[in-house]
Amino acid sequence: MARRVRGPDKHLVHGEWMTEAEAAERLGIKRLTIKKWRSVHRRTDGKPGLLVEAWDYYVDVKAGRIKRWMGRPPVVHRVGGRRMTKREAAEALHMPVGTLDSYMHNHRCGLAAAYKHYSEKRQKQAEEKILEIIRGK
């Protein structure tokens, strides 16, 4: 008696039968992404979430109705009497966030000290340029 070889499971997604791989290809994501989503969003009986639910989720992500990575809200620091995030401080200083991070790590200080360092450095550079113009160099 010949054994029946099973292929990948097909799921009904909005009236069309498809596998996880086919759904992933149409959505433009990896199959493993759908597999992980279904594993994390299990049903009450413990089985993986339905493929149609994963499909709807990733369609909403692509449309911009759902943020892809929620993440944590940025940490707000007190800098010179104002409250700001690292990104806001970097934008105010016109520099990359990584530069501030690097200074804070290397000097073992907080955002306020790094902000003060770079703002004083900028102030000194501006003063030197003005003096060069006045002296005619």
In brief:
The protein has 137 residues and is mainly alpha-helical.
What are the low-pLDDT stretches, counting only 5+ consecutive residues below 50? none
Q: Care to count the β-strands?
A: 4
> What radius of gyration results from the CA coordinates?
27 Å
Helix and strand content put the structural class at mainly alpha
Number of helices: 6
Strands, helices and their partners?
Elements: E1 11-13, E2 16-18, H1 20-27, H2 31-40, H3 51-63, E3 77-79, E4 82-84, H4 86-93, H5 97-107, H6 111-135
Helix pairs in contact: 1-2, 4-5, 4-6, 5-6
How would you describe this protein?
The chain has 137 residues and is mainly alpha-helical. Helices cover 55% and strands 9% of the residues. It contains six helices and four strands, in the order ββαααββααα. It has helices at 20-27, 31-40, 51-63, 86-93, 97-107, 111-135, and strands at residues 11-13, 16-18, 77-79, 82-84. The strands form two sheets. It has a two-stranded antiparallel ribbon. A hairpin with a 2-residue loop joins β3 (77-79) and β4 (82-84). The N and C termini lie far apart (96 Å).
What are the main properties of this structure?
single chain, two-stranded antiparallel sheet, mainly alpha, 6 helices, 137 residues
